[in-house]
């Protein structure tokens, strides 16, 4: 699917919300069997049980219709909602969802048992508050998303999205995750962003400054608490900090993997420049660290246009061990074997 809407429809088909034990109507047990040849003298075949939707069964059977062959309803009665829910929740049930399914998957399956009418037609869009579409080849965030009037969390990681139009995002969004995509420009996203957004995930994209940093201010994201910009191509630390400092609610920031993170004073400068920050690059900022870097924000001259890279090699496998070779005696005519190795780092 090329759009989020198309991926959602495919997602609903995958959940099979109209099949047992979900769907409209009440489920009853039905016994099925077929004759095995007339006049053979063989006993009646064994009957195999199955489950049918009672409303569908009644719709197919007219009042005058007589039982055909060996098919007949059996008195055991309808399956209770409790029994149907147990079939969904029991990990040993053939209808159980896989362990890595999202809470939204489980919620929709249970709603399809308890109140299936809520999932008919456009009413399904009123139920969904969290939508996770991962690695489904989505390229477009289309205006069909506006049908999700209660949507609070939208996760579209590992797709092929390069452009996000904010006019297509529900105003109720609080979490927007777009990591592992191809977003290289924030202009369309910031034209009219969701005002209540608390987390914005843009890690592993194609953002490069300084043109993008102007979109990371309180004027666009007044309630932003968490921001992930990791593994992009941001280089202007001073320019980025001047914009991020306007985000008064920002508490969590991830910038690792950008070229600017190689600056020797990178962490200390950020810690002192953003006093309300609690976590930087997944590491908690403790009071003693903040005290250690106190005053660094007033010394921007320490941020030079150079980087420091420390490479540590813990272990190398597949190389001959020099200790395994016996030292040649003086004057020996034995062969001398020399090994040369070249290690290349690409930035």
From TrEMBL:
Entry keyword annotation includes Repeat: yes
One Gene Ontology CC term in the entry: cytoplasm
PANTHER family: LEUCINE-RICH REPEAT-CONTAINING PROTEIN 51, NISCHARIN RELATED
Top-rank lineage group of the source organism: Eukaryota
Name by which UniProt lists this protein: LRC43 protein
Keyword Nucleus part of the UniProt annotation: no
Keyword tags: Leucine-rich repeat, Repeat
InterPro entries: Leu-rich_rpt, LRR_dom_sf
Transmembrane feature ranges: none
SUPFAM superfamilies linked to this entry: Outer arm dynein light chain 1
């Amino acid at each position: 699917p090329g759009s989020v809407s198309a991926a959602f429809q495919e997602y609903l088909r995958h959940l099979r919300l109209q099949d047992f034990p979900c769907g409209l109507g009440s489920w009853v047990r039905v016994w099925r069997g077929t004759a095995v040849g007339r006049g053979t003298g063989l006993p009646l075949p064994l009957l195999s049980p199955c489950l049918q939707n009672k409303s569908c069964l009644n719709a197919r059977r007219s009042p005058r219709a007589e039982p055909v062959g060996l098919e007949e309803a059996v008195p055991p009665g309808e399956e209770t909602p409790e029994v149907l829910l147990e079939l969904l929740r029991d990990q040993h049930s053939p209808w159980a969802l896989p362990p890595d399914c999202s809470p939204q998957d489980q919620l929709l399956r249970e709603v399809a048992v308890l109140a299936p009418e809520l999932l008919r037609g456009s009413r399904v869009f009123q139920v969904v508050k969290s939508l996770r579409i991962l690695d489904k080849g989505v390229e477009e965030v289309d205006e069909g998303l506006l049908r999700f009037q209660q949507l609070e969390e939208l996760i579209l990681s590992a797709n092929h999205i390069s452009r996000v139009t904010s006019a297509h995002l529900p105003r109720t969004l609080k979490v927007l995750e777009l990591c592992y995509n191809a977003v290289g420009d924030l202009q369309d996203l910031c034209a009219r962003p969701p005002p209540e957004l608390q987390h914005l995930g843009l890690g592993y994209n194609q953002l490069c400054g300084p043109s993008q940093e102007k979109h990371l201010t309180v004027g666009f994201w007044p309630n932003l608490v968490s921001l992930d910009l990791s593994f992009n191509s941001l280089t202007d630390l001073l320019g980025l900090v001047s914009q991020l400092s306007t985000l008064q609610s920002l508490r969590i920031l991830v910038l690792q993997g950008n070229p600017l993170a190689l600056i020797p004073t990178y962490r200390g400068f950020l810690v002192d420049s953003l006093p309300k920050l609690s976590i930087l690059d997944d590491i908690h900022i403790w009071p003693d660290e903040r005290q250690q870097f106190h005053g660094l924000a007033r010394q921007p001259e320490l941020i030079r246009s150079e980087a420091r890279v420390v490479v540590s090699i813990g272990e190398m496998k597949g190389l001959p061990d020099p200790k395994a070779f016996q030292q040649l005696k003086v004057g020996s005519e034995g062969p001398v074997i020399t090994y040369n190795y070249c290690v290349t780092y690409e930035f």
